[in-house]
DNA sequence: GTCTATACTCCGATAGAC
DNA sequence: GTCTATCGGAGTATAGAC
């Protein structure tokens, strides 16, 4: 792999693990097996490299989620598959994690990929909810936009609960609760 | 106020804003108006001071949430009041935020107050859900434990969405969606 | 209790040789 | 492209005077 690619991947890993403030150029160089001069030859500095890493992470997250949300099954089944997919829960979300970093939030260029990714996810799920409403899979009156936000928030917050407790159980519990709330509408109507 | 108190309060603010890694002893001293020697006289170091600050923040959060969850109204009304309470959404949750800090999560003493607080909140809400089930305010079949986890996760995740977008709208939307799901007519026969 | 002095390392970057 | 040298500042303390 090329040196820039190794630098970007190392930065992705470190940003996920330690955040922007907690990630130093030196640590990136060590992880990538690249020297100081090499890193500053390919990137103008830490923030430039972080932008490349965050953009790539955001893209990868879209692909991962998209495979399930655009996959086989009914709208409800796809949302369920997304919620129940295998996750390294205790590592947290590589995108959502960065929203707690003030230096990332303060920089519009770094924040943009985070916003775009979570917004894309919310929209994609809202569309599925609408399709599920149309085919009777969800309770009439379900508001796709807000409920999609709830779904994304539950996942993001599930990571918080899991990391606080040191166990993925809390994440699973939050998802279970959400799925039960989304359960099939009464057949009586 | 005493010097230790000023140091603790300054640390609380900085941990909320910048996290553990992003908070330096020097910044704490500046914010507290205390000197180097003074800080190290009252606390053994950064982590000791952080423990005091985190414990106090956790206690304050319990009191704030408790005032609404133990307040007037039916169980459903109290949960709703908790979800709709005024928040400085873009600042995030001073407790949840720290779960993304690897140095906090790696230290059981620092992690314990986070876990205890979120666990307390989840339990308190689960109890209210059970009471609401008993008086018919929630759909039969609602599982108090998991749904309580969903409620707490939605709030924590709402902060993530809001900070990503730079607006509190996404938080409000996630809460709206959650309230609508909790208000849905009985779907389990 | 608080102050200043000191120590050693890392941070984030630039400069210039090869 | 990559290396080494260098830089001013910040991080996280410890020591000892007052």
TrEMBL record, chains A, B:
It comes from Streptomyces cavourensis. This is TetR/AcrR family transcriptional regulator. Residues 1-61 form the HTH tetR-type domain. Signal peptide: none annotated. The lineage of its organism: Bacteria, Bacillati, Actinomycetota, Actinomycetes, Kitasatosporales. Keywords: DNA-binding, Transcription, Transcription regulation. Pfam families: TetR_C_13 (PF16925), TetR_N (PF00440). Residues 24-43 bind DNA. The keyword DNA-binding applies.
